[in-house]
Each structure stands twice: as structure tokens, then as C-alpha cells.
Amino acid sequence: MQTFYLFGPLVVAVAALVYAFTKATWVSKQDPGTERMQKIGSWIASGAMAFLKRQYRVLAIFVLSVAVLLGVSNAGLKDSHVMIALSFVVGALCSALAGFFGMKVATKANTRTASAARHSLNSALQVAFSGGAVMGLTVVGLGLLGLGTLFIIYSKFFGTTYSATDPASPLNLTLNVLSGFSLGASSIALFARVGGGIYTKAADVGADLVGKVEAGIPEDHPLNPATIADNVGDNVGDVAGMGADLFESYVGAIVSSMILGMSWYFGIAEHQGFDGMNAIYLPMTVGLVGILASIVGTFFVKTREGGNPQAALNFGTVVAGVIMIVGTVAALAFMLPREGTIKAANVITGRTDEFHWWGLAVAVIGGLLCGMAIGFVTEYYTATHKKPVEGLVDSARTGPATAVIQGLALGMNSTTIPVLLICAAIILAYMTGGLFGVALSAVGMLSTTGIQLAVDAYGPIADNSGGIAEMAKLGREVRTRTDSLDAVGNTTAAIGKGFAIGSAALTAMAMTAAYITKIGESGHTLNLNASEPYVLVGLLIGCALPFRFSAMAMVAVGKAAQDMIQEVRRQFREIAELRPALIAAQKAEMEEREPNAEEQAIIAAADGKADYAHCVSIATAAAIKKMVVPGLLAVLIPLVVGILSLEMLGGLLIGCTISGVCMAIFQSNAGGAWDNSKKQVKEGGHKVYGDAYDGMHKATVTCDTVGDPLKDTSGPSLNILIKLVSVVAMIIAPILMWIHF
Q1: What mean pLDDT do residues 211-234 have?
Q2: Which of 29, 222, 399, 458 pairs as cysteine with 471 (C-beta 3.0–4.6 A)?
């Protein structure tokens, strides 16, 4: 069976990649629409890929530089090795490839989704979801394939024998070197999230403020010079960025749980007929089951004309979750002894605990259910026509100030239940499986990442399809269908962010435990008592770090948006054909009708006069320039603090996780609710809100603009921050021990 545990995950990972390729091929064969739709789609695709290639050129320099530093600093250490640099490069490469392939297909799917919407809602849903599925399955496929391949290589090179008293034992060395894969993924994720977030919000704010508020036209109107940059931003931020985010969580959870699983080694080996290595193989086996469950779940995402796409997406996710639960119980019952107990030393508490095999199953299932529950709570707080957003819409009757206040309160309130759910998952996992159980709970939450990310990546594809339908003038019936998909897409994006935050919390805790475990295995127990000055200072610095990081990201968005706003205003002012066309389009929009023949002629005369390419260039340059400093901050702070004190670094990891999780939930949900309040007001129009509509619309547009950098830049980036500081600490632990001891 050891051969299956080693090579089974690789086979299933390859199957996921083959299925993703099949989906990508199917999407490519769908009708791309009219000549104008294809032209618009090519603008978006070329802009997205140009940004990604430029970003990856910068990241290539960073990755190679860090790889050299890792190799040099780990050379000669008894419990690490120069080959950690290889793990780092492979992790970065796999993350970058997942983002590249996922976004390549997403930019094809957006045009084809708009085209399919001319026929039926379900056809459009299938194309959009299939495009998202490519991203989801590519992430889990490359993640498990990369980890599994490196583990086999290092197992042959270093060996897998283990000694609890020797931190330089072959198995420990194998896993220490393997952890570099997680650091490589984290590095790409941070820059992809921050850079993509700055890009998308610079374009979005420009399109919103100048296009909708000042000019009075839809943000996706072809007269708006920022609209192509806005559509490009949806892909680089919410497809490539989110993909890199969950790729990092996925591999980080697996690696940290493999490290913590070493404490089970002898406990399992005591039972006749069971190999202690089963504890090391277990996280990858859970990932194997999750991939299979995700693939099956994709077949259940269907809807009918006039149906609710959200219900279809939820059903597919639930089916995958049920299969995952059954498969997890079966796998653990087979891999671990079903009778008696397993004794494993707890390096943090210094005592020996007893664990039953079913306790780990409970931990994995608890994490999975926690992730799904956080998604449903996030949906409640951010979806249109739910009580929180209804209250937010009502507050917009008295202007943007009251709507901003209500949205801030909504975001703060929305942190309570997710935090309690995460706490429940942690306590349950610890009670039934110790720290190994907590790590496996994170793996359980991320086990169905394949379909979770498919649902999330569906959102920007649906959003783009609506913009293409608007720019290609496909009519109100088609736009109604794409709006239906887009409204659900906003909610799925918010759910995806909630899921990412929850998984980040558990993953960061598992990595923190792995850091403490590494220190403990060297014979030096960390005293993380909050009354100790060094620990308290670390806690305070950790709590402050997400605030500083968020501020830097938001300032970057603000400065980039200023450049975009000035450019859009310049084009409206200086391009002669745009001014009369804007007046004609604004009149039709205010009267909620299609432009008449005279207005259409004026608008047609201005077609193609807006300089979309220059707006794309502005957003790209700003994103690449502004993403560097926040990224370096996340890497350097743990290193500096760790050199000062190991206890201070432990406090920093805990403080950053606590503060970062709450800040991320608050920002993501407040921004998501503001976005959907705008859509609900627009959907109702004068028919529902009467004379108050114009004021409410402007108020919610302002709120949405304020919330954009919260939900798409600083909020999601905090997921990666809390994981990155933890994985950096885990990686540099051998170096820090050499410095201090």
C-alpha cells in the first residue's frame, strides 16, 4: 500500500489536470459570438496576459534572488539542505503556471459566456462555470503533483527514517526541505494578490467615478476608456490572484500537517500491520479524495431558464462536500488502526496525548463543514435581498454618509460568526486529534478547493460577460441574463473570500505549530506566555502588521486610481467625438431606455475613439510598481523579529493571525455588501425606489467605490500576509536556531 500512498496522489493530480484540459478544450469550442464581441474579448485577453507576463518578469528576478539566498543560508545546516531552493523555485513555478492557464481560459470563457447568454441562462452558466473549473482543478492538480513529486525525490535522496530526539533525522530533513515549496507558492500569491488587486481597483474606481458618477453612463459602456482595463482587472485580481491565494493555502496546509504528522510516527508504528509513514501520507491522501469529490461535484452544477444560478453552484459544492466526508472516513479507517489508541508526544504542551483514529476524521470533517458554513454566512451578509444588504440599501436613502456608516457596521458585525466557527473548528480538531488534528482540519477545509475555486472564478467570468454584452450592444434580454449571472458572481466572490480567510486562519495556525514544533525538536521549548515582554511585543507588532499592510495597499490603489481618473477625464475632454456621444448615452440611461436612432448614430460615430490601451498601461505600471514594498514587508518583518527573539516571532505569528483574520473578514464583507447594494438599487430603478432612486444610486456607487479596495485588494491580501509570515518563520527556523543556539 505504501506505493499507492506515494503515487496515488500523483495519478489523481494528473487526472485533475487532464479534466481541466478537457474543460478548457470544450470552452474553446463554444461560439465566441459576433465579430465585435471577439474584438472586445481580444482586447481583454491581450491586456490580461500582458499584465501577467510583465508581473512574472519582475517575480522571476525575485524568485531567483530568494532561491540563491535560501540555498546559501541553508547549506551546511544539519537539519536543512541547499535543495530547499529547488522546492522554492518549483512552488513558485507551479503557482505561476496555475495562474497563467486559469486566466488564459477565463479570458476565453467571458466572451463565450456572453454569446451563450443569447440562447439561455443555463448555457451561459455552463460556460462560465467550466471556465472557473479549469482554474480550480489546475490549482489542486499542480499543487498535489508538485508536492508529491518532490516528496518522492527527497525521500529517495534523504530517506524516511525518523528519530524523535534527532531534528536532523532523514524524515525531518525531507519535510524541512519540502516546506520550501510552500514558501515559493506564498511569494507568488502575495504579489499576484497585491499587484492584481491594485490593478483591478485602479481601473474599477476610474470607471465608476468618472463613467457612472460624473458622466452618468454604465461602467461597461464602450464610451468609457477605463472599461477594458476594468474587465482585465477582474481576471488578474479575482482569477489569477484568488487562484494563487488558494494554491498557497492548499499546499501550506498539506506541508504543515505532514510536519506535525511526524509526532504520530512511532504511535502508529506500535500497531502491528501499520506503518508510521501513514501519518505523513495522510494529508496527501485527503487531498486525493478532495480532488475526486470536486470533479464529481462539477457535474451537478445546472440550472433552468429563470432559475437561480446560486442554487446550482451551491448544490454542486454540497455534493462534493458529502462525497468528501464519506471518502475521508473510509480513507482514515483504512490507513490507521481501528482499535486502541495512538500515543504521540505533544512538543508544545510537553505531555503525551492519546488519539483515536476517528478523531482525525472528525477534525477533517469539522474543517470542511466550517469552510462551507463560513461561505453560507458570507452569502447572508453580502447577497442582494438579504436583511443586511436590505438595511444598507435603505440607509442610502439619506445619502452616502449614512450608507458608509451602515456598511462599516455590517462589515464589523460579519466577523463574529465566522470567527466563532473557526474557533469551534480549532477546538474540535484539537480535542479529537491534537495539533495534528488542527493541521488536518485546515486540509479538510481546503480539500474541495477544486470546486470552491471553480465557483469563485466563475464570478469574474460572469462579470466580464456582462461588460462584453453591454459593449457589444446585445440588448436588454441578454444583459438581464448576464446580470443574473453577475449578481450571483458577486456573492460567489464574497463566499470565496470568506472561504479563503477561514482556510488562511487554520493554515496559519498549522504553520505556526510547525514552527514551534521545529524549535521544540531541537530541545528548546518556546515559552509563549503573553506576560513575557518579548512575547507581548511580538503580539503587538503582529496585530499592527495587517493594519500597516492594508494601509499600504489602499494608498497604492488610491494613487493608481488618481492617475486613471485623470486619464479618463482627459479623454472625455479632449477627444471630440466622445462629448456628444456621452450626452446621448446619458439621456437614454436616465430614461432607462435603449438609445433612439439619432442617439445611436451619435454614439456609433464615437465607437473605438476611446484609448483603452493607455488606461490598461496606466493600471499595469501602477500595479507592478506598488506591489513590491508590501511584498517585501511580509518577508522581512518575520526575519528581523526572529533574529531578535524566537519568542517574539512566535508572538508575532499569533498576533498577525488574530488581527489579520478579523480585518480580512471585515474588509471583504463590507466591500461585498456595498457592491451588491449598488446592484440591488440599480435593479430596482425608479419603479421600486421612485424619486429617491437617483440619490440612492449615487450614494451606493460612492460606497461601492470606497469598498472596492477593501474587498479586492487589502482584504484578500491579508489572507496571504498571515500565511506568508508563518511559512517564512517555518522555513527560517533552522537558521534562527543556528543563530540563537
Answers
A1: 74
A2: 222
